[in-house]
Amino acid sequence: MMFPIPPREFPNEMPPCALVIFGATGDLTARKLLPALYNLSRENQLPDRFACIGYARRSKEHKDFRLEMQEAVSMYGNHKELDVHAWERLERRLFYHQGFFDEDKDYVSLKDFLKRIDTEFLTEGNRLFYLSTPPSNFQEIIQRLRKHELFIPHEERNSCCSKKDSWTRVIIEKPFGHDLKTAKELQKCIDDNLCETCVYRIDHYLGKETVQNIQSIRFANKIFESCWTKECIDNVQITVSESIGIGTRGNFFEQSGMLRDMVQNHMMQLLCLLTMEPPTSFSSESIKKEKIQVLDNIVPFSEFAPSVFPAVRGQYGPGKVGGVSVKGYRQEDFVAPDSLVETYVALKILIDTPRWQGVPFYLRAGKRLEKRCTDIAITFKKPIHGDFFAKERLENDLLIIRIQPDEGVALKFNCKVPGVSNLVRPVKMDFRYDSYFKTQAPEAYERLLCDCILGDRTLFTGNDEVIASWKLFTPLLEKWMTDPSDAVFPNYVAGSSGPRCADSLIRSDGRSWRSL
C-alpha cells in the first residue's frame, strides 16, 4: 500500500521577517541555505513578506549575487530542473550587502538597509541573523550587532529579543566552541548580549526526517518502547561512514578533526534522542532536560582502565574508493605532511542509568570509508527460549534506523522456513520513506529555517547540552594531544572499513561491527 502524504503544513502562519546571512559567499550558503530557501519558495512555505540579505566582504552587485545563487540552486538543489516561477519569487527578495565583520560603519549601513527592506517588504522589523561564518567570527558579530542596536539588549526587553511586536533571532552554526573553555567563552558572549531564548544553535542532523522519527519509533509504538531497556537490548551501534575525503576543507579539518566535527555534536544528539527517558511533554525544554540527563550520566572515559580504554582514532592513507584512486589525508590540500589529526573515531560509551546500565553503545565515524551510510543498529538479546531451537543458530533480532541514504527503518527477526522441517532463518522487513510516502524527504535546512522563523526551538541544541558534551570529550582531546603514541598514522586504507584498532575495541567485548 502506498500512502501519498499531503503538502507539509506548519502550525502557524509564517510571520514576516528579513533573513541576514553573514558569510553569504561561503560554501554553506551555496550548497545548503539557498537551495533550502528555493525549495521553500517552490512549496509556497516562505512568508509572504520576506527578504534575504547576503552579507560578506567581497564587492558584489545584487544582480551578481542573484546569478551566483541561481547557479548554486541549479547545481546543488534536489530538483532536475529549475522552477522558474519559484526562483523568480525568491530572486526578487534576494539582496547583497558588502561589509566586514569587524567594521562599525558596515553595521551602520546594514541597519539603514534593513530599514529600507522593512518599508519595501513590510517585514515589521523582524530579524533573523544567520552566522554562517568561521567560529572565530561569532563573538565579533554578536557584539557588533548589539553595539549598533540591530537587536535590543536583553536587560531592555521582556523576553525573546522582542521590542513591541518585532523579534530578533540569531542562528549559530556549529562548532559551538573548540573545547570546554572556548564553549564557555562563546556562551558568556551570548549571555552578555542576548537572551538564551533567541539563540538557535543549529545542528542540521536534528532537521533530518529520520532523526526526528526516532521519537515516533520509540514513543508511538508500544512494541518498541516496551523493550527499550537493558533487559532486552544487547548493544547499539551508531555509524557515520563517509566515502568522501575532506575536499577543500583542509584548513578547517586540521583545526577540528573527526571528534569535533562529527562525534561531539551530531552523534551525541543521535545518542541522546535514542536513550533519553520519555519527556513529560514534547516541548523544547522537556526534551532538552531529558537529553542533558543522558549526557550527565555517561561514564567518563577516565574511569575506564588503560587496558580497555574505550576510544580509538585513525587517519586514512591512499587507496581506492569506488574503484578510483584517492590521496591519503596527509596529501590533501592545506594539510600538514605529518598531521596527527584524526579522520576516524570509534568509541564505546556506557550510560549509568537504570534503563541502560551495562548496555554498550558503540560509535564510529570516519572519512574515506568504503561507502556512505549513517545508521543506528539496535541489537536485541537472544530469546529466552532459544534452547528450543538447539540445532539452529539463531541470530539476534535487529532494528536498523537508516538516516542516510535510503532513509527508512528495517527490522530483522527469525522466522521458520516453509516446509516440513523446523529450519529457522532471519528475515527482513524494510520500510523506506520515498517508496512508501511517494515523496522526497525535505532537506534538513528547510525544516530548521522554518522553525527559526516560527520561533520553535525544539530541534535546536541548548547551551547546557553543548557544555555537557564538551565536559565529556575535552579530556579525551587533551589526552590525544599530550600523548600521541597511538597516532601511528595513516592506519587505514582509503576505501576500507576503518583501522584495525577499531575492530579490536569492539572485539574485546565479544562483538563485531556491522558491515558497512
Overview of the molecule:
The protein is an alpha/beta fold and about 525 residues long. Helix content is about 35%, strand content about 20%. It contains 14 helices and 19 strands.
Mean pLDDT: 89
Query: Which range does the strand content fall in?
Result: 15-25%
Coarse shape: globular
Helix content: 25-40%
User: What can be said about the biggest beta sheet?
Assistant: 8 strands, mixed
Distance between the termini: 30 Å
- Name the structural class: alpha/beta
* Spatial strand order of the main sheet: 9-13-14-8-15-16-17-18
Q: Please state the CA-atom Rg, rounded to the nearest Å.
A: 24 Å
Weakly predicted, low-confidence segments: 1-12
Keywords:
single chain; 516 residues; alpha/beta; 14 helices; 19 strands; disordered N terminus
Write the topology of this structure.
Elements: E1 17-22, H1 27-42, E2 50-56, H2 62-76, H3 84-91, E3 94-98, H4 104-121, E4 127-131, H5 138-147, E5 162-163, E6 166-173, H6 180-193, E7 199-202, H7 209-219, H8 222-225, E8 233-241, H9 250-275, H10 284-296, E9 311-314, E10 316-317, E11 319-321, E12 324-326, E13 344-350, E14 360-366, E15 373-380, E16 398-404, E17 408-416, E18 424-432, H11 433-437, H12 444-454, H13 463-482, E19 492-493, H14 500-507
Parallel strand pairs: 1-2, 1-4, 2-3, 4-6, 6-7, 8-14, 10-19
Antiparallel strand pairs: 5-6, 8-15, 9-13, 11-12, 13-14, 15-16, 16-17, 17-18
